[in-house]
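Figure-free illustration: sequence to structure, shown twice.
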Amino acid sequence: MNTTHTALILGATGGVGSEIAAALLRRGWTVRALVRDAARPGLDPRIDWHEGDAMRAADVMQAATGVDVLVHAVNPPGYRDWDKLVLPMLDHSLAAARANAARLVLPGTVYNYGPDAFPVLAENDPQRPLTRKGAIRVAMEQRLAEATDVRSLILRCGDFFGPRASSNWFAAMAKPGRRLRSLLYPGRRELPHAWAYLPDVGETVAQLLGRESELERCARFHFAGHLVDGNTLLAAARRATGNATLPLRAFPWWLAHLAAPFVVVLRELREMRYLWREPLQLDNRRLVAWLGAEPHTPLQQAVETTLRGFGCLE
């Protein structure tokens, strides 16, 4: 990889953005990032941090000057005001990518899809979401498809997990910062579900960008990740903790239902319940055809690294 390539990452302190940044740095890229407080402790010194806000178009445009790639891995904090902020934020990234002839990378999800597309999701399956957030995700992808003067890359994934990602279903199951005493599982324990280990996602994005000139204008890929059921996930957690009797408990959907009008995060989680009622996996054959193999950390290693990063292991 040419070491003069530069990427701007919005959301570089989050789970997805930080892993994409790490993978690009390993390949000699120059990595910039936009952060509200560039003096905050713990920021990676290898990254060129620019102070600003992804919700301000001028800040994004200034930070993006001269970049080859812009990674849009940022969301409004705390799931708040998605309907008001998500699309304007993406428009800021689109404008900056357009001004610099840069490729825009959007880490995607399965929220775009309704149950009619289950159980195996392919890149071109119809997108008929059931939820407000799913409709916003569809609108985001439509923005990229309609921006005929901007190259884009979307990598759709299952539920994220990883040592630096604390806002996802795995974190709701394991409770970061506490010794793991049980797993709160949101679905039927025998149903397989798609999980995306974020260091593997970051590596996948970096490998695709290594062949950026070969990608079509609107490139879409699916990342299969780990297809495991609740029993398999529990077994991995038991081995990681050394606790052979660690229980798998049912997620309290009744509590999410009662508290949803008052707690934004629980309201958002409740909307996603349909994703846990049926088997769910992503068809990665197109990705494998491109890369030869999908980056894949063994499940046991991925679970243990995540729990250690959460501070859940003694």
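We now fold a second protein in the same way, so the two outputs can be compared directly.
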Amino acid sequence: MNIIKFLDEFTSENLSNKGSSRRDALSTFSSLGKKAALAAVPFGMATVTNKAKAATMFQSTEAVGALQLALTLEYLEASFYLQALNSNVLDEDGTGKANAIYEQISLHESAHVTLLQDTLVSLGETPVDEPTFDFTAGGSFDPFNENGTGQATAYAQLLALAQAFEDTGVRAYKGQAGALMGNDVLLTAALQIHSVEARHASEIRRLRGLQGWITGNERGAGMPADTQAVYNGEENIIQGGVDVTTLGSGSPFTFDSSTEAYDETITADEATTIASLFIVS
């Protein structure tokens, strides 16, 4: 999952100051004005192979700051999946399926990190260093069984965190589409990546024995209460100003099926609160 999708507000001042805490930078987003036009820029870089094109698309300090923040947050997800693979917690699955899925997602996240690093270097910028992460969120989780929670419990938490990351990413990334309207290259690239992220989310949910979609604002069996913010708002049944449960002959659409048919966006405040839980410095 690409957590830059979470962010539709940022400032170059905080992001370009490498001495600043990443947590401090994240905490400022809710008070900033809208600066989202280039927030999803990294995804368009998949189609940019020429440095001159890149320079044309990314000339502002805000864009460089966005790329640095994107890299910081991609480090987070890449680190999560790598740590999961390096632990023996995935062995709890007993079939090897979980390990195979995490390996594939890990490759995707590592590719995102490399892309962002190369893009920054091509712009004459030095990529920020990888920050320190705490996937226990201050002791709330023990996904790698480092604190002796137990293999079964750690495995459940490992899957729960992946689900929270991926479901959040799908909702938040969808909210970036409006910022890309008018630029067909970036919008196309963003939508292509968004569909893959949705596949990640569905695969992780099915690995947990759940349906591949979200019903109402239910976080699913076994999900910690801390993750409820990921699902709040998904109970919306108004689309385009119309109550979708009333559509069709005889109103065949129930509340459950109506909420399952649409994913909602997530606000910057909600997304950054979730992301910042795992960033130490």
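Summary for the second example: The chain has eleven helices and two strands.
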